[in-house]
Amino acid sequence: MKIIVLVKEVPDTWGERKLDLETGLADRAAGEVVLDEIGERALEVALAHADAHDGTEVVVMSMGPESAATTIRKGLAMGAASAVHIADPALAAADLGLTARTLAAAIRRSGFDLVITGNLSTDGSGGVIPAMLAELLGVPNATALSSVEIADGSVSGVRAVEGGTMRVNAPLPAVVSITEALPDARFPNFKGIMAAKKKPFETLGAADLDVEPEDLSVGWSIMTAVAEKPPRTAGTKITDDGDGGTRIAEFLIENRLV
Amino acid sequence: MHDLTDEEQQLYDMVCEFADTVVAPQAYEADRTHELSMDVVAQMGELGLFGLPFPEEVGGQGGDYMALCLAIEALARVDQSVAITLEAGVGLGAMPIFRHGTDEQKAEFLPDLVAGRALAGFGLTEPEAGSDAGATRTTAVLDGDEWVVNGSKQFITNSGTPITSFVTVTAVTGERTRPDGSTAKELSTIIVPNGTPGFTVGPGYDKSGWRASDTHPLTFDDVRVPAANLLGERGRGFANFLQALDEGRIAIAALATGAAQGCLDEALAYAKTRNVFGVPIASHQYIAFTIAGMQARVHTARLAWHDAARRADAGLPFKKEAAIAKLVSSDAAMLNARDATQIFGGMGFMNETTVARHYRDSKILEIGEGTNEVQLMVIARELGLAA
Prior knowledge:
The complex is a heterodimer. Chain A is an alpha/beta fold. Chain A has 6 helices and 12 strands.
């Protein structure tokens, strides 16, 4: 069984995050960068399965700048067997469509039984990559799973929906995405960190995957404007003159908060 | 720090993450209740921290002393008690067995010690003997094929946890004659398993700092252990211990650097968000300069212990460098703790703040593993002065 886990370097979720107003991209130099936590959880799902099932190969895959290699290597330290890093300046401003096409090409090239991803990255927050990948790969897609069971020829899990839960099942090969309901990832130990140095780490460019970054025959999303988040304002103060309750209720209704 | 390899940096980052997410949230409660969290110790064991400087053949992680000290520094940023538990667990618990143990002793004790499933203490300090280890009064007399141990020890770290399996005790085992004809005590080290009849672990101390660290007085009343429990050569107890002491100073220096860094992190974050007279206090030059000074101390302390650890790992003499590292880093911790609590104002006097805990915890750094006066003595002697 070969499981590919998509991981991503993102600006530290808990740190200060900045947008480069020239390019509209995240300013990676503005603060610390980390492996996206949701991707770590996805990796934990794969590693937990590998721990219990001999013959499971876990591959971490990421598309990101060359500088992200160190962060991706953490996936190897945690226990993945190899890494595939797609690093190409031509892909720097890739939209979701191009990102999905590139990742799909790399996944197809590696071969896979199962692809596990987070449901939503903490930086771009597109949330559609898993579905796009499944479409491009022509395999079933189970999204937003809060639990995952991997069997020989199928994957199943639970998805929380409004007012209930759904049990979903898909034959392999498949793409699944997971939510933060799944457990925290393990910490890599020193032995893992040292071992990571010797594990296969493949770096690919768009050309290796026959992906044309400037292909104008497919749809594109074009960013037309980028602006800084407006600064936080002081908020609304309601002084209770006997009708405070009513006014709070009105405020909540007006802002669709209830 | 640019001298770290990628792997060392990753180790440090990983332990920082572990410290922030697992250790920090329990630190206040553990300090308040004087209770070492065995759950945290177990997780540190699973992470391989207790096995860092040991080869993989004995179940270790294949790292070196530098790696261990990086982990200690990372933990000490948020909880000195947990950091000293690791330092003592490795340096005083497992390391003497690894260095001086017989194959049988290693096979019996090392697997659990390096995995953090068991802890061991090192019983050196006595009411009348600290750095002056030659004043040891505890005795061990060979009676047939058993050692009979009598005496008492104090301030013994990790000696009474639920997973403590033994304490290595220094004891007078006879007299030896010096080349000049005078006599001196023959000191040896003996492994005394917890639970041996006559071996009593006293109640934990009411310490002003490092309160979650497990520390007890021990008494030995005709305690009988097999002759095979002698650790290392008879009469080499003191010499073996001195080596451990020099290394321990580097580890304490790393711990103190972590404490100084923790104070800096806390002070910096607080000064940026705490507003007085309408502006963050960080925008006052006095506060900014205070924090700048804290950063300078952390950096100096870190350079000092890195150099000492690198020397130790390279097999170079490091006695003087270890003493210097311990001296400057413990001063850095104490001064940074004082500055950080001052920046916190009234909140800095509340035990629930990390800086208040660092303030109480850091004092022992100037006392333990050889007082700072002893460090000055060591440095002076290394310079050829008759100190």
